[in-house]
Amino acid sequence: MSSTFSAKEKDIDSFSDANSRQLKVRETDPHRDPRWESFVMQHPAATVYHHPAWLATLESEYRQSCVYLVCEDAAGMLHGIFPLMLTKGVPFRKRHPIMGTRLVSLPRTPFGGPLTTDIRAKELLLKEAVRRVSEKPGVYLQIKSQDEDLRGLVGGVTAKPWRLTYRLYLPKQSNEPFRVANNRTWSGIKRAINKATANGLRVRQADTLDDLAVWYRCYLETMRRTVVPARPYRFFLGLWENMRPKGMMRLLLAERETATGARIVGGFILFYLGQTATYAFGASRTCDLEFRPNDMILLHAITDAQRDGFQVLDLGEVPEGDEGLVRFKVKWGAEPERLSRYYYPDFPDDTPAAEGSGSPSMKAAKGMWQRLPLGMTSWIGDWIYSRL
Q1: Which tens digit of pLDDT belongs to each residue from 190-203?
Q2: pLDDT beyond 60 at 357
Q3: Whose CA is closest to 336, among 346, 348, 344, 325?
Q4: How far apart are the C-alpha atoms of 204 and 300, rounded to whole Å?
Q5: Least packed by Cβ within 10 Å: which of 39, 77, 109, 133?
Q6: Burial 72-93 (b: 16+ CB within 10 A, else e)
């Protein structure tokens, strides 16, 4: 998708101190430029969110203006990529650094940022992003990166602490069954799995669009229960069409055998790239939570990842104050790691993001949300995400 955000094309030329390579930054189309996917697949720090399949899915969700930067040498060899998209921003907060209009890498995505082979390429890509934002008053640059090298690299780009994410580091030898080191915790997990099995639950991979559609209704129910806006169905259809054929996405379903046949009671979507498997989305029917489908699905996901040689299962970030979700992830042995987000220009650390969740108005809004029809929660979630 071409960019409508950049003012006018401007190459940045420089020479690296190491071997006098002439570098320049320009835009490209990652779907037509085969170098982009090749660069991602060969880079040890690449995430699934740098891959063209993920970018295509975001593009199909909302038709946002995209800026796909590459840093290349005179021979056309890539030394870095930097995917960015322009957000609309929430009404009445257009100039808010977190909720307003932003050039972001990437929206509705845990990680993004520049992916490079050396620090000079990283600096040039970051400078170009800053230049473009500087020409648009009221627009912030937001980078969701795990890269500590961004700190202090370009003047005015500052790091802000973000949420904790939880990563489970898997044994390198996959011939031993997975188990949690804490015996008491492992006993509790086994009891949950036994309960799920005794109640007729089993786990399988989804293989049809009908499976995806049934899972999506479970997802809507979960998002209503947890008071979280739901992503639109077309987003998950994009994952199915863009990422699943490449082996980068699986939907693991929990089914319960009943007298009338098998019934889907929940499922997890996971992504796979390099050495990392990533938990992305989960759902479960409220009436079936007592049968512990989430424990059974996650153990299946861990076993699959270990068998397939993945070294890390990223269980994802947790919003501040969600102690129940923290306990669920920690009991499997996942370790917390603090995330950062980078912004340009800087803003005060005490800038409020939104009204506190404990305020009377927010409590009332949560109560109303949990009583809405599922179709209404989907429509509202779609409207919200179209601006984030």
Answers
A1: 999 999 999 999 99
A2: no
A3: 325
A4: 9
A5: 77
A6: beeeeebbbbbbbbbbbbbeee
Q: Tell me the two tokens of residue 239.
A: 């994952």
Determine contact, residues 5/136, Cβ cutoff 8 Å: yes
Evaluate whether 243 touches 54 at the Cβ level (below 8 Å). yes
Secondary structure (DSSP) of 204-256? EE--SHHHHHHHHHHHHHHHHHHT-PPPPHHHHHHHHHHTGGGT-EEEEEEEE
Residues 6+ apart with CB under 8 A from 243: 48, 51, 53, 54, 57, 249, 271
User: 118 and 16 in contact (C-beta within 8 Å)?
Assistant: yes
Across the range 167-183, mean pLDDT stands at: 86
Q: What digits encode the pLDDT tens for the residues 41-89?
A: 999 999 999 999 999 999 999 989 999 999 999 999 999 999 999 999 8
Name the 3-class secondary structure at 311.
Answer: coil
Residue partners of 367: CB distance under 8 A and separation at least 6? none
What confidence score (pLDDT) does residue 10 get? 41
**Closest C-alpha to 241, from 42, 60, 18, 32:** 60
**pTM for the complete prediction?**
0.91
Structural domains of the chain ordered from first start: 14-162+342-351 (3.40.630.30), 171-310+370-382 (3.40.630.30)
CB 305 within 8 A of CB 292: no
Residue 109: half-sphere exposure toward Cβ, Cα within 13 Å: 29
Q: Residue 95 has which token pair? A: 């100039």
User: Measured over all CA atoms, what is the biggest interatomic distance in the chain, rounded to whole angstroms?
Assistant: 72
Tell me the sheet residues that pair with 15: 22
Beta bridge pairs of residue 73: 23
In terms of Cα–Cα distance, which of 207, 190, 314, 189 is closest to 264? 207
Name the token pair of 230.
């739901």
Label residue 383 by pLDDT band (50, 70, 90): very high
pLDDT for 333 beyond 70: yes
Q: Which two tokens stand for residue 77?
A: 């060899």
Sole residue written with tokens 């153990």:
299
